Amino acid sequence: MSTATGTRRVTTAKAMAEGIGLEMQRDPNVFVMGEDVGAYGGIFGSTTDLFGEFGADRVIDTPISETGFIGAGIGAAVEGLRPVVELMFVDFYGVCMDQISNHMAKIHYESGGNVKVPMVLMTATGAGYSDAAQHSQSLWGTFAHLPGMKVVVPSNPYDAKGLMISAIQDDNPVLYMFHKGAQGLVWMEKNPRSIGEVPEESYTVPIGKAAVAREGTDVTIVTLSLSVQHSLDVAEELEGEGISVEIVDLRSLVPLDTETVLESVGKTGRVLVVDEDYKSFGLTGEIAAIIAENDPGMLKKPFRRVAMPDVPIPYARPLEYGVLPTRDKIKAAVKDLMA
Amino acid sequence: MSTATGTRRVTTAKAMAEGIGLEMQRDPNVFVMGEDVGAYGGIFGSTTDLFGEFGADRVIDTPISETGFIGAGIGAAVEGLRPVVELMFVDFYGVCMDQISNHMAKIHYESGGNVKVPMVLMTATGAGYSDAAQHSQSLWGTFAHLPGMKVVVPSNPYDAKGLMISAIQDDNPVLYMFHKGAQGLVWMEKNPRSIGEVPEESYTVPIGKAAVAREGTDVTIVTLSLSVQHSLDVAEELEGEGISVEIVDLRSLVPLDTETVLESVGKTGRVLVVDEDYKSFGLTGEIAAIIAENDPGMLKKPFRRVAMPDVPIPYARPLEYGVLPTRDKIKAAVKDLMA
Amino acid sequence: MGELDRLAMYQQMVRIRQYESRIMQEYHADKSPAWDIGAGLIPGEMHLAAGQEPAAVGVCAHLKKGDAITAPHRPHHFALAHRVDMNKMTAEIYGRTTGLCKGKGGHMHLFDPENHFSCSGIIAQGLPVACGQAMAFQRKGTDHVAVAVTGEGAANQGAFHESLNLAAVWNLPVIFVIEDNDWAISVPKDASTAGASNADRAAGYGMPGVRVEDNDVEAVYEAAGAAIDRARAGDGPSLIEIHTLRLFGHFEGDAQAYRPELETVNERDPIPQYAAALQELGVLSEDQIASIQADADAEVDAAIEFAKSSPEPAPEDALLHVFA
Amino acid sequence: MGELDRLAMYQQMVRIRQYESRIMQEYHADKSPAWDIGAGLIPGEMHLAAGQEPAAVGVCAHLKKGDAITAPHRPHHFALAHRVDMNKMTAEIYGRTTGLCKGKGGHMHLFDPENHFSCSGIIAQGLPVACGQAMAFQRKGTDHVAVAVTGEGAANQGAFHESLNLAAVWNLPVIFVIEDNDWAISVPKDASTAGASNADRAAGYGMPGVRVEDNDVEAVYEAAGAAIDRARAGDGPSLIEIHTLRLFGHFEGDAQAYRPELETVNERDPIPQYAAALQELGVLSEDQIASIQADADAEVDAAIEFAKSSPEPAPEDALLHVFA
Ligand SMILES: Cc1ncc(C[n+]2csc(CCOP(=O)(O)OP(=O)(O)O)c2C)c(N)n1
Ligand SMILES: Cc1ncc(C[n+]2csc(CCOP(=O)(O)OP(=O)(O)O)c2C)c(N)n1
Ligand SMILES: [Mg+2]
Ligand SMILES: [Mg+2]
Q1: Chain B CB within 8 Å of residue D57 CB
Q2: Complex ipTM, two decimals?
Q3: Which of A93, B136, D35, D296 is disulfide-compatible with B127, CB 3.0–4.6 A?
Q4: The pTM is what?
């Protein structure tokens, strides 16, 4: 077990991989499998350096058979191992969704609590670099809708490491959704917030607790993942214009920290949900429901959302940025709420 | 083309099959495929008598290869045929979701509008007869969240036939989700509303238009599918207790008729969403968002939802009815809204 | 194969048959006059494996405690042959708190971690899970094996291909068992399956594939023994396709109007055939037949009694066990 | 095969190679110094097929107008060999309104209904779609065929199995073409594929399976001709696995550190080899080599020019074309 202390600035990708590595050191039952997680280090860097440290026996490249190897992860977990399995892009869920939603997520319940499935399924999400309709989705709303799996969505290096360690230690299946654009990859445009201070030692970030990423009094932005970074940028800009924005970084969708959301909305009375997932029938609606169930009178202004409109994600940059929840759109929506 | 007129009382299943049959008569490009749609007539009766009328060439039993035959449906549609494909239970979506969400739903958009996919994917939904976690889901929220396919969910025989004909005539992929418990099957407990008057001739019910299934002034129930039948029962009971319930039967989720919802809520100021799909991150939230975006002040009382709690669906009857949106739960929620 | 092995296999087949027959009776008992799938002491879909006993019994005869099975929607015969407790299993089918899964799973979702038994209502999806169990056995350095069972219809599902390939590439101790009962609900094998036999498909993965042509428990026993020994020895996966018989409908309530060979079904029943063979061999007497049947009757009756007298869960228990 | 066929195939290979090489240049041109995948005139992932020309050219030489192809994430060579308009395709890759898909699809989602060409970024999922196109051709009574292309890595995906089985059961006019370039991103074939060759897997579906061992356009031509004739004659599907070569990285930006045989890659380039063979045969002169290259250069330059000078879509156009 690592006993090192101190922090350094690392990327989100590196922080994730470090979290996995620390758990692999601690527990011999932890292993990693997925496509190109070995020598390649994960297409989005989520397993950087693990192959070198732990070898091919614990960092396993798989055939392109997502149903096969996610199912194998479930079987291994049922037998007491603790697999960390990567689905390269969340967009590929459709070739293996039965294993995820009918097996990984349901076995514990179906067994009346007698069988545990301590497994992490990590997957890359998000758009912004013209990867088009089949490689750019967020889809966390899809998974959060389905019972039986925890869903975490970190926005920065510190949370990425701490949530990964929590996820591996959790006795439940945890879907860990990271944003390609927040990984801090050298080959992708990045927000400086994708590199941050991260302790060297092991620590956990609790699953099910949102973070107030920034305090403010006028408007609450409820958001997650890369949109937290954008929202923080916008909040800094708007501070100069005299608008005080509070930002709730949900971090977990299942369980959802409704308390933190309601507390913030109670304070500001104005709420904007920023979501890179599709707008309808997803996260943005759920936040609206939580508020309206509690007390619609909390809202001084109509509820607002800046989300991916209900269109497949287009390829060409002007089209893609036409639908993405950009800083400009977030800013305009906040100003509108203050008008 | 049928020129018969007059109505008779038929089951929802029969009405669906009739809709398909009329379109098959009209257009030789229409054909049906799926598991046990032939001699068996569809496990839930959706293709009753079609095999006898049209033969094995137009009513095709497939291997248990949902990715294979749904993909084949897409390919056939792209080449100008109009397949009606059955996915036996919606719960099996996970073995073929890539074809549905990444291909069927996206090809038209990805092609810049140059390729059309005029296909109907029909599938059985719903619980209530102890079929447990993998055969009882509704999941319409999952599909409505994903762009590119229309989603229709009839609640009665008349709409079942008219929406089927509209779906087959539509140039877009349409997901047609019918409730097993609303089919009027002889071997399942049924609400008398699952048998109803249906014209013999061809007619359409527009996709994207909700119906006010019952007018009322005190409370709006927004709902769909079998829950419409339950809600109508409850409304009749509550009439005696002096509570006037309006029921909006959504019928289509994509496109969603927000106007009819807002109009009704504007009138009553009290809203209950009844949904057999999982509660969180789905339909119930979307309705809340639509209202809160429009004007949270429309709500005189906090928003209410009676939905499947976020648990896999249990087997034993007391457990299953413990989570289902039953008449009792609907009634209690309405009374609560009036308290 | 000794006399005792033969008797034990016969006895196990009779026990399973008695179970399936009694469940059939119980299932229908309180669903009339207006037959309602959701009504009665045993609600929901019910897929019985009568006629397929040789497959389960011939395979499981080689399994020891700690070996795993993933079964499909038609699971009872493999469960019983693999030591799953009959009382707890029955209580689960009756939806009682004493059931294997406290009434949450039901007949298609029986989980017995003690015996590493599970099943699933989604066809072919137990195959990848068995690969993972085998992976765990391999990583732990044991000689345990995992058996993945599926129907011939289900063998046309993508998961079949992915699992066979994965098992072969990783040399996993898995035995893929295909029960070919000629039918997938109403669709006959030749309308759904290209190629003569799934056993032939094994070659494409460099894996031994055997087809057991007749529904004979001893032939299954031989084929399974070789495959299981191979897996235990670290020599990797195998596939066995067993030509068997669906004696009842696909599920209870299935009128089987689509089934031309329905009339001959009883003649093909493997249990009287095996009894006759054992009598011929002088291994089984009429008295033994009667006493084996009587034991089976008593055991099954007791299990049903246990189930019926067990408490039903409370509605609010539905909210438990979502997360550990 | 006549002289003209050979020259046409050579010419087509050179044309494709020039295309892939120029796209590579263009792709990288404006991504430096801080290399950013989303930046530049051509953003996003870019999978080039240099080295794999023999597969596309040998197969497509037999296709006629109205035949269909579903290609995977690495589609350019099949698109160009199957008459997809180079200008419109290039404009699509540049994300312009004049593109095949008005800029909505991009390099992995090229749709050309006129030529029944499509591709998809989800591996192996074009196979079922090709089956459906073949089904339509069959139902309409034409002799058209559908070609489904996939990599050797993708052949371990469930959709492969379902599609082969479906095509065989329904006797569909489909040709499954597997480009075995030894690698699936960083994973070599032997770490992912059980069995010697995907061609052997065809037997499990009662379907002819052929492996073309060397990356030779004429060998591909022969194998494809037989399979396509068979399909047109109504005799059903076939599978062809072609051992080919990934000359570049998996996608642009791939440093290929995992690749031990990287050094020998250029020696294995099929185009100089074919040129030499044709020169040997006396079919191709140095002058012809130069003029074929010059034509290719000109055509590709013109396509790039067309793309670059075409308008970009307006952001609000993103909301169009969700529904017909
Ligand atoms: C993925 C999936 N598709 C369809 C079904 C519905 N279904 C249940 S059993 C069955 C037939 C299975 O046939 P086979 O595999 O031969 O097993 P048998 O019933 O004959 O034992 C079907 C189609 C399912 N459960 N899962
Ligand atoms: C279902 C699915 N899983 C994974 C991927 C990611 N992916 C894209 S290409 C590729 C490798 C494909 O290898 P192969 O089929 O051999 O084709 P090649 O790239 O060598 O041409 C992978 C894993 C994908 N696109 N779709
Ligand atoms: Mg069968
Ligand atoms: Mg390859």
Answers
A1: no
A2: 0.98
A3: B136
A4: 0.98
